[in-house]
TrEMBL record:
Keyword Membrane: yes
CDD domains: LPLAT_AGPAT-like
Key words, A-Z: Acyltransferase, Membrane, Transferase, Transmembrane, Transmembrane helix
Record organism: Shimia sagamensis
SUPFAM superfamilies linked to this entry: Glycerol-3-phosphate (1)-acyltransferase
Transmembrane segments: 12-34
Protein name: 1-acyl-sn-glycerol-3-phosphate acyltransferase
Occurrences of domain Phospholipid/glycerol acyltransferase (ranges): 73-187
Pathway the protein takes part in: Lipid metabolism
Amino acid sequence: MRLAFRWVMSIIYVVQNAVVMLVMGIVFFPWALLSPKGAMTACKTYATWAIWSARWLVGIRSEVRGNVPSGAVLVPAKHQSFLDIMMIFKAVPQPRFIMKYELLFTPIIGVYAWRLGCVPVRRGKRGAAIKAMLADVDSGRVPPGQLVIYPQGTRVPVGEHMPYKVGPYVLYKETGQTAVPVATNAGMFWPKGTMLRTPGLAVVEFLEPIEQGADQKEFMVRLEEVIETKSNALMVEAGFDPDAVRQ
């Protein structure tokens, strides 16, 4: 009975969330077309709604830990769920995301992403994708802010592992910016591939910065170690049993 109730509430949450996204997208659209500020206001408003309604409809509480960066920095983040996107977006003042190129052609969402200064990347063409990514950043099209990149390139379900890609290091080296890693356990409560939402405390945690000066090997090893270690700790804190996955 309890599981059935969770399913019903999860479906209600997902549906109302989609409706609110559409309505806000349409209402803010003229302002977003005229000004990046309009796009940012719309997306911040939607993220706030989605996080707030998740607490009251499906019992997902949210918490941001660590020192949230406010300057021009690189933010390599663990990605498990759409929820961690919204939590990071709401937390930092000027977020810009490295995103899938295909999203540019999504109705309404594509325009908002473009106006926010997000950087589209074509998958499967790593060399060309990195060059295009750097060109966008260097051209000034991407305003200063917190540039969020997912080192594993996609959402990674809880208990699974995917290799870290070199993109974060290339941006770290070429932009000269400090990197602020982010860990999360959000996938435990808002998992990939299902509408079911599970009550609990979803956390994103901003970790110790990686200052300029690291070479590629040092940077990549440190980045993966700190993100994976802290994300695993957050998941264990929330009740995840890594031994159950290994069995």
